[in-house]
Design goal:
Two copies of one chain form a homodimer. Chain A is of the alpha+beta class. Chain A is 27% helix and 37% strand. In chain A, strand 2 and strand 3 form a beta hairpin. The two termini of chain A are 38 Å apart. The interface between A and B is large, with 55 and 55 residues. Chain A binds a DNA duplex through residues 8-9, 33-35, 43-47, 49-50, 52-53, 63-69.
Amino acid sequence: MNKQQFHGWQAIETELKRRISDRVWRPGEQVPNEVDLAEEFGCARATVNRAMQQLADAGLVDRKRKSGTLVTLNPVRKATLEIPIIREEVEARGMKWHHAVLGRKIARATKQVSARYKLPEETRLLHLRSLHFADRMPFVHESRWINLARAPEAETGNFEEISVNEWLVQNAPFTRGDIAFSAMSASATEAEALAVEKGSAVFTVERTTFQDDSPVTSVKLVYAPGYKMQTIL
Amino acid sequence: MNKQQFHGWQAIETELKRRISDRVWRPGEQVPNEVDLAEEFGCARATVNRAMQQLADAGLVDRKRKSGTLVTLNPVRKATLEIPIIREEVEARGMKWHHAVLGRKIARATKQVSARYKLPEETRLLHLRSLHFADRMPFVHESRWINLARAPEAETGNFEEISVNEWLVQNAPFTRGDIAFSAMSASATEAEALAVEKGSAVFTVERTTFQDDSPVTSVKLVYAPGYKMQTIL
DNA sequence: AAGTGGTCTAGACCACTGC
DNA sequence: CAGTGGTCTAGACCACTTT
């Protein structure tokens, strides 16, 4: 008989990937339906489904009811970035972490900010500027706004021991967020904190998080020159 | 009775997320086991399992056999970046794309390159330099090495109409890759191509892809100043 | 040894969608 | 209407880990 035995959905996933990468099933082509594949692999349909869903998540196939499953023509590769707290990022590199608070003040949201984030006018905000070190060298400059209506305990918090970064992760959960990565020229303030020349090319992360459409915190992280953010495809 | 009805694993996932974000289950705490949750939700255990696996993938809970499921203490947020071909990236912004090949040459791998990528010595490589435009403005400078042993057709390929970028996606599948993002100062060559000042801060992507441990192509993409790569959390 | 998650099965029904 | 994937179920066995 032609049937081959495969064990576990991961084995099936591997085999399906092989058939795509070896061009057994060519881009744009339709692949057999789940019932037939289940019979071929000698397993239940649900097992094939599990494997196939992985491929769909990875963008290697497009699935539609009735029309079936097609091999994606221009697969859009997906890279997953893990966004750890900065202390863990430093420690994962085998370096010693510490940080310092450079500035702290309370302000009220301007009309523009209120409008942009749909906040009540004059909402009280806490602004914090701090610097993270790796082995005593400046690593990241952090400039952060916190919505005190969402995290009132932040107003009296002491962020000398635990960083704001870490405190918020543990105390201000969010349901949604956006993040942007870019290259910027270091401002005078950032350059001074990082001990580099003004205008140096610095990797920048801007992130805003929301709890049910209401902003919790917004942060700009400026990394010291030479930083690379890496992951696998 | 206390049981509530939920329909579908997504409804259950939402409810589980709510209990975590509302601190019904606090960070570090153990959550009820799947059998109990299934009874509470009035569904099969497999349905709870499906929902719970989503949370585990998102890093919100840690699961271990026997010890059960714990709410993650310092959730490591994961952002998924979609890496499209550049033409699609430009067109997705509603702009017109075109590109130009700036340079093309064949070279042999140096000892260093051979060693780094475990290539046979003197492997023939194709180097291509090209520029992508968005609405006639320089958008990305692309500098790419192609392993001709892996993609021999590239040697005679005409990349005036279709970009190398797109050609490789369709013709040189890979099984593995790494990618790094950073901020760099534009080199003289890059600055000239992008029509900006030398030393400008530019967002840079470096990517190498492999087919079963053998490198297929390695590329450095330098984006025009101001570019931001965005996604949601 | 026992508790928990990981996975599989066989079958069922539903939800889309192309004809 | 009919074909396909999406999901659910009840039950089973296995794999891993702690005790």
